[in-house]
Design goal:
6-stranded mixed beta sheet, 5-stranded mixed beta sheet, 3 domains, alpha/beta, Arc Repressor Mutant, subunit A, D-Maltodextrin-Binding Protein, domain 2
Length: 294
């Protein structure tokens, strides 16, 4: 006997006081509701509902057992909801990434997840772009399933994959002398303002970047530009430089140059909530990030 299904019929009839209205609320025809309730009553050896010309009336036994039946039905719904959520199919699979990734790479990761996850999410694969600190907090809270964050960052308590290094180019103003140089030197950028993600996105990586530039003899003023679109717009003004992953397009007024590959590279990790099997989307993202190194 389908105990949960029959209890669901019982609760619906009790709440609507009418078999037809209960069936309509459940999205079924009336006969299965009536037959299911009779099977439940036979199984329990109790009459739960008295059938009258006016509709359905709870018996004393039905009134006594209704609260427990509601709990069982609600718990069953929560159980199924939790199970769908754990496989990423309740409201779509949400994944996060830092804004330094270019649009094409984000799109490839999203499409890769969609193709890799079986069964496919009920609604969609939803990308969320934010700084590493915020993304890690969202994964810990369960608001998103997994995220691509910068290394180093505080990933304690989360499943964290290996470090993936994604190369970046320096984005220069098109009319700057370094843009035409065959082998531009970092010192040539003196006087340009660096635009990059805010320090509070992930203080350790921000500080390491600034320190590496200073050790190379460049101590730039720092401004904020998170996405490649924002970096390109700032650099096109002629007064700034920034960084872009290799798949990012060159916009008007900008030039991409390979300089300081070790210092400018993005070092990333995929983090996810422990205890949830997210191997398929993790592998899909990992595959696309590795492609992004070429």
């Amino acid at each position: 006997m389908d105990l949960i299904g029959h209890l669901r019929y019982f609760v619906a009839v009790a709440e609507h006081r009418h078999f037809g209205r209960a069936a309509s609320a459940l999205g079924v025809t009336q006969p299965p509701v009536s037959q299911g309730l009779r099977r439940l009553e036979r199984h329990l050896g109790l009459q739960l509902i008295e059938r009258t010309r006016e509709g359905a009336v709870l018996t004393a036994d039905g009134s006594a057992l209704l609260p427990r039946a509601r709990l069982i039905v609600d718990d069953a719904a929560r159980f199924l909801g939790d199970a769908r959520h754990r496989q990423g199919s309740l409201q779509g699979l949400k994944w996060g990434c830092v804004p330094q990734l270019d649009d094409e790479l984000i799109a490839r990761c999203t499409f890769g997840i969609l193709r890799a996850v079986t069964p496919r999410p009920d609604h969609s694969v939803i990308p969320v772009t934010a700084g590493s600190a915020h993304l890690i907090s969202e994964v810990r809270s369960g608001a998103i399933h997994l995220a691509v964050v910068q290394f180093p960052s505080d990933t304690e308590g989360l499943d964290a994959g290996p470090i993936i290094t994604v190369p970046r180019s320096v984005v220069l103003p098109a009319e700057h002398p370094a843009a035409d140089a065959a082998s531009p030197r970092l010192k040539m950028l003196d006087g340009l303002r660096l635009v990059t993600v805010p320090r509070d996105h992930n203080p350790p990586t921000h500080d390491l970047l600034i320190d590496s530039l200073r050790r190379r003899g460049l101590d730039p003023e720092v401004g904020v530009a998170s996405t490649h679109r924002e970096v390109a717009a700032a650099v096109a003004s002629g007064s700034c430089f920034g960084f872009a992953t290799t798949g990012a397009p060159e916009h008007t007024g900008t030039v991409h140059k390979r300089m300081l590959p070790d210092e400018t590279a993005l070092r990333l990790r995929i983090v996810s909530t422990p205890g949830i099997d997210l191997s398929e989307p993790v592998h899909a993202i990992d595959r696309e990030l590795l492609r992004g190194r070429r």
